[in-house]
Specification:
With 411 residues, this protein is of the alpha+beta class. The chain contains eleven helices and nine strands.
C-alpha cells in the first residue's frame, strides 16, 4: 500500500497569532477573571465562559480553516491557552481537553505518515467532528486517566472497545474526566478488545454525552482546578457507530510515538498561572489591586528582592516554553524530545514556586479567598500531577533517555 505524509498547513502569521492571543486576553480580563472565584468556591463548571468562547468562534480555534475553523497551529494554541490560564486556570485547562480533539485530528494528524486508505478514512471521520464544533458549537472532552499505567503510556488502556456490527461496544471507566456533565462528546481512549491487547491497538472514539450506558459518578471537591468538574465516567455496554472514531485504528499510537508535543498541551495553562501570580504581586505591592486600599509596599528591600527572583524564574520558564512550542514537530530529535520533558517539568514546578513566593511576599492578606492569589497557588500545585507527564514521570524519562540510547541495556 502507498504511504505518504500530508503536507501540513503553514503556521499562522504573527499578526493573526497576536490577534487571537489578544482576543483571549480580552475575554479573560473582562469576563473570565470576575467569575473565577465563583467557579472555584462552588466547584462548578464555567458554562458562561464557554458561551463566550463559542460566541467568539474560539471553540473552533484548532479546527483547520478548510473546515471553517480558525486554523491555529500548535504554537498558536499554546499561546492562546496560556493567556486564558492567566485569567481562569480551570477554563484554560478544560479548554485544552476540547481543543486537543481538533489539534490531534487536524494539524497534528496531517504530519503523520498514513496509507491512502487511512488518509481517506481520517478525512471522513474528522469532517463530521469538525462540523459539530464549528456549526453546532459542540464541546469535546478527552477522558484519559484510569488509575493505571495506561495514562503514563506504559500499558494498554483498560477501557476496551469490542468490534460489533456497524460499530463498537465500549466498556470501562475514566477517572478525573474533566468537563464531565458539560461536554457534548467524550473522546475516549480505549483498547480494541482482542486476545493479545497492545498499545498499538488504541482507539480514539467520541462517545455522545446522551449515549445509553454512559454515566457520571462520584463527587468533585479537590484542592485546586475545582471548576474543571473532573468526575468519573463509567461506560457499560456503550454502543457507538463506526463513524464515532476520531482517528482510524492505530493512528493514535503513531501520533503518541512520533508527535510527543501532543502531551505538552496542559503546560500552557500553568504558564498563564505563573504570569498571573507575578502580575498580582506587582499590583499588590504597588497598591493597585482593585477593591483594596491603595497602600504601597514596594519600598521594602525584601519585597524588591522577592519580585526580582520571581521575575527571573518567570523569564527562565517562559523562554523554555516559547522555544519548545516554536520547534514542535513530528519526529523530533533526541535533544528536542528531552527539552519537551524539561519544559513540562519546569513550567509545572515553577508555576507553583512563583505562586509560593507571591504569597510569602504579599503577606497574610493574600491568603484570603477574596483575592485570587490563594486560588492561583492551589491551582498551580495540581500541575505536577497531570498525566501523562507528571513531574515524576518527566524526571524518570529524562534520567533514562539522557543516559541510554534506544535499545541499550546494562546486560
Amino acid at each position: 500500500m502507498n504511504s505518504a505524509r500530508h503536507s501540513s498547513p503553514a503556521k499562522l502569521g504573527k499578526n493573526r497569532q497576536t490577534e487571537l492571543v489578544a482576543l483571549a486576553g480580552r475575554l479573560g480580563r473582562e469576563k473570565f477573571a470576575p467569575r473565577a472565584e465563583k467557579y472555584d468556591r462552588e466547584a462548578s463548571f464555567p458554562f458562561e465562559n464557554y458561551d463566550d468562547l463559542r460566541a467568539q468562534g474560539l471553540l473552533g480555534l484548532c479546527v483547520p480553516q478548510a473546515y471553517g475553523g480558525l486554523g491555529a497551529d500548535f504554537e498558536t494554541y499554546c499561546l492562546v491557552s496560556a493567556e486564558l490560564g492567566r485569567w481562569c486556570g480551570a477554563t484554560a485547562l478544560t479548554f485544552n481537553m476540547h481543543a486537543s480533539s481538533a489539534l490531534w485530528t487536524g494539524p497534528l494528524a496531517d504530519d503523520l505518515e498514513m496509507t491512502t486508505a487511512e488518509r481517506a478514512e481520517l478525512e471522513s471521520l474528522r469532517r463530521a467532528h469538525f462540523r459539530r464544533i464549528v456549526e453546532d458549537g459542540a464541546v469535546y472532552a478527552q477522558p484519559f486517566s484510569e488509575g493505571s499505567a495506561a495514562a503514563a503510556g506504559k500499558a494498554p488502556f483498560g477501557t476496551v472497545a469490542a468490534k460489533v456490527e456497524d460499530g463498537w461496544r465500549v466498556n470501562g471507566k475514566k477517572i478525573f474526566a474533566s468537563l464531565s456533565g458539560a461536554a457534548d462528546y467524550y473522546g475516549v481512549l480505549c483498547t480494541e478488545d482482542k486476545p493479545d491487547r497492545s498499545m498499538r491497538d488504541t482507539l480514539y472514539i467520541a462517545v455522545p454525552a446522551n449515549t445509553a450506558g454512559l454515566t457520571i459518578t462520584g463527587d468533585w471537591d479537590p484542592l485546586g482546578m475545582r471548576g474543571t468538574v473532573s468526575r468519573t465516567l463509567v461506560l457499560k455496554d456503550v454502543f457507538v457507530p463506526d463513524d464515532a472514531q476520531l482517528m482510524p485504528r492505530g493512528l493514535y499510537f503513531r501520533a503518541a510515538s512520533s508527535w510527543p508535543y501532543m502531551f505538552l498541551t496542559l503546560a500552557p495553562t500553568y504558564m498563564g498561572i505563573a504570569q498571573a501570580a507575578y502580575d498580582f504581586t506587582l499590583s499588590y505591592l504597588r497598591g493597585e489591586v482593585e477593591g483594596q486600599p491603595p497602600v504601597k509596599r514596594r519600598m521594602y528591600p525584601t519585597k524588591q528582592i522577592a519580585t526580582a527572583e520571581m521575575y527571573i524564574r518567570l523569564q527562565q520558564t517562559r523562554a523554555l516554553f516559547e522555544r519548545t512550542i516554536a520547534e514542535a514537530k513530528v519526529n523530533p530529535s533526541k535533544e528536542e524530545r528531552l527539552r519537551c520533558y524539561a519544559t513540562q517539568y519546569t513550567i509545572m514546578e515553577n508555576a507553583n514556586e512563583i505562586c509560593r513566593l507571591a504569597i510569602r511576599t504579599c503577606g497574610g492578606q493574600s491568603m484570603l479567598k477574596s483575592l485570587p492569589l490563594e486560588r492561583l497557588y492551589r491551582d498551580s500545585r495540581c500541575g505536577s500531577l497531570m498525566l501523562p507527564w507528571t513531574a515524576e514521570l518527566c524526571l524518570d524519562r529524562l534520567g533514562r533517555e539522557t543516559l541510554y540510547e534506544p535499545g541499550e541495556t546494562d546486560e
